Hints:
Elements: H1 6-19, H2 22-27, H3 42-51, H4 56-74, E1 77-80, H5 82-97, E2 109-113, H6 140-147, E3 151-156, H7 189-196, E4 203-207, H8 213-219, E5 222-225, E6 245-250, H9 253-263, H10 281-285, E7 293-297, H11 306-322, E8 325-329, H12 339-342, H13 347-359, H14 365-376, H15 381-397, E9 407-411, H16 420-432, H17 446-452, E10 456-463, E11 469-475, H18 481-494
Parallel strand pairs: 2-3, 2-4, 7-8, 7-9
Antiparallel strand pairs: 1-3, 4-6, 5-6, 5-10, 9-11, 10-11
Amino acid sequence: MITMTRRTFARGAAAVLAAQSTRGVRRLIAEDTSSDPASMTLAEASARLRTGSITSVQLVQSCLDRIDIYGPKLDCFITVMREQALAQAKILDAERKAGKLRGALHGIPVALKDNIDTAGTRTTAGSGVFQYRVPDEDAPVTARLKAAGAIILGKTNLHEFAMGAGEASFFGPARNPWALDHSTGGSSSGSGAAMSADLCYGALGTDTAGSIRIPSSYCGIVGIKPTYGLVPIRGIAPLAVSLDHCGPMTKCVEDAAIMLNVLAGYDKLDITSVDHPREDYVAGMKQPVAGFRIGVPIGAFDQASSEVEAAVRAAIAVIAGMTKGVKEVSLPAPNDVAYQNFAKFGEVFAYHEQFYKLQSARYQAIDRKRLEDNEANHPRAEDYIRMRWELETLRRTVDDAFTDFDLVVLPTMKTPAPPLDELIRRDLQTIAGTVSSSIPSTASEVGTYNAYGVPSLSIPCGFSKEGLPIGMMICGPHFSESKVFALAHAYEKATQWHTKKPPVTPQTTVPELMTHL
Length: 517
């Protein structure tokens, strides 16, 4: 059993502070953005809009000004909807002056991962295959944001068709604002970078094996993968439908709760959608956590770097001091339904077959290799069906493990963001068939929670000695989003990690990346 006291908290916190080397501390010193409207949280911007002390046009223009400066450095936007966003801001300002407020997202500029359909605006999925694709209809999540008064600022970069770690996109890889030569994480790479650099007030990502939480961890922001089926994924280019989720990526926990209030809801045309009673996640976030019982899954720190372990253990010590206690717990093993085994059993190729057979040359080389391998190892239908049975059984029974604990906490990623060149080198070696075991892996348990289908949130909890963000994951049983938000919000109020800004400035140079071995 793991028990936390003030003494163990002090030791953990000291370890984290010791890990902040001189270089790391310098990385936390960014440009002063305190007077820039784009530096506000979504909740703060919403409050100022309601009082009339700022306009939606000003919020949009502030984001566009920063996109002009940092967009080329971070390569985080594929499409910027400048004219449409400003025009919509004027309409929403006029509505507000007339006394019509649609809700907390009224007049707020947000960004969408570019695998999410937007009617009349190009949606590429980061691929040359969809370079010129313009949908006729909004995805339900897009339509819900618009109806709530959110302004779609643009479409963010991603790993092609959400297939990987963010290093392969038709438009080039997004860069991490904390270190432009490091990965943002994938596949929601552009959304992570844009949020971290204050280029929008909220963003959407998708998550099949961690693609919201990984970039949230690497970029020092909050991101939640809700319960499977709570947010519709219709109108989103799929990776593996049985594991795909959509959710918000934000600067703080309250902002994520505000966005989920709008995104959640049943869609009868979505085969994954679940008809769950509507909840107010902002209200749920405010519930007391003193009675919460917290678990740390067995093996949570296996393969974790010393810096990640120190930061997350220090965070757990803080949580132990505000809840009923922390202990080591066991969750069921997902076995063959884990992402890497399940996704290859037909679902990825089921979507891509039509495009791959006609346009294989337009895929990125590493993703073309993945599809080639998928086609060559095509499963029997009965194998896939058995995998589906296992997945459904796991999802129906995983909540039974939460008997004497309410939530679990663990590292989001077990190492900080790797250099992009490491990922590119691994891809080049994979294509050449010469993968080296010396290339570090990016270990984590994020994909397990896609198999479970339960809510899973990443929140900043520290930095490496090089100044790279570290994230902690908070997860619970199905439809426990309110409790997940409550614990994350309580931790956030007790710490300052979410207030740190990346060191990217207008003078920051963009390092070259490797293109061949």
